[in-house]
Amino acid sequence: MTTTVLSETHQAITTISLNRPEVRNAVDGPTAQALAEAFAEFEANDKSKIAVWYGLGGHFCAGADLKDIASQNNTGKLASQRISAEGHGPMGPTRMLLSKPVIAAISGYAVAGGMELALWADLRVMEETAIMGIFCRRWGVPLIDGGTIRLPRLIGLSRALDLILTGRPVKADEALAIGLANRVVPEGKALEAAQTLAAEIAHFPQLCLKNDRMSAYLQHDLSMELALQQEFALGLQTIESQETLTGAQRFASGKGRGGSFEQI
Question: What pLDDT, on a 0 to 100 scale, did the predictor assign at position 231?
């Protein structure tokens, strides 16, 4: 039996891949569960600092497996087995807030629920020939894996509504211009570029990085006053860990002068 989600950890980087190339990595119920489990394992692995994930066979993810959905009868089987307000999201990890960053390496199509998976990641490295879009607009399939929330937060409400209401395709150059993609790379290079970026991020002091990242995520629901208090509390935790002192000592010894990121 083919494993639909593969996970491999090398040094500080965990690489997670969708392995359903025959359906452009569309996600069915078991695959959604396997994705959530793979990211839970990554979260629990203290040796792994950052995850990269992509789709085997040239496509990131074509969304929910609509043929699987269409094959269900009207007995409620689909709703009871996959669609629920509790537990994991219908596409897998989309209700999880991890303590460590995730980079999506996007090739081919990242559309519908596949786009929602890409939005869940912290960063998106997109090949110049890749396409994103809310293609499920055509079929009456709703965004229920965070798409209506994360997309406006990333690119603003007006641009998000343009994509949500029209379902139109978004090419890499536009995705980069509106902040949907963080990097655009040549065709076939997304995974390599994402892993290089992951290695750079893994090189930084990790508690400070993780706390600053978490403050950025959690501030959405808070007033400015409470958000500043939370930021201070997380920053103080970093300082008290001695990570800040160690970094300051490295700077004082001559490291990182002139903005250099070498030998820090």
Answer: 92
Query: Against a cut of 0.70, is the pTM above it?
Result: yes
Burial class of 92 by CB neighbour count within 10 A (0 to 12, 13 to 18, 19+): buried
Residues 18-25 have a mean pLDDT of 96
Residue-wise DSSP of the chain: ---SEEEEEETTEEEEEE--GGGTT-B-HHHHHHHHHHHHHHHH-TT--EEEEEETTS-SB--B-HHHHHT--TTSHHHHHT--SSSSBTTBSTT---SS-EEEEE-SEEETHHHHHHHHSSEEEEETT-EEE-GGGGGT----SSHHHHHHHHH-HHHHHHHHHH---EEHHHHHHTTS-SEEE-TT-HHHHHHHHHHHHHTS-HHHHHHHHHHHHHGGGS-HHHHHHHHHHHHHHHHHTTHHHHHHHHHHTTTTGGG--TT-
Degrees, nearest 5: CA angle 73-78-81? 140
Residue type, 185: V
What is the spatial order of strands in the sheet that 183-185 belongs to? 5-10, 13-18, 50-55, 102-106, 123-127, 183-185
Residue whose pair of structure tokens reads 């999506």 in the numeric block: 104
CA–CA–CA angle 71, 75, 79 (5° rounding): 75
d(CA 87, CA 69): 19
State how far the Cα of 100 lies from the Cα of 58, in Å rounded to an integer. 26
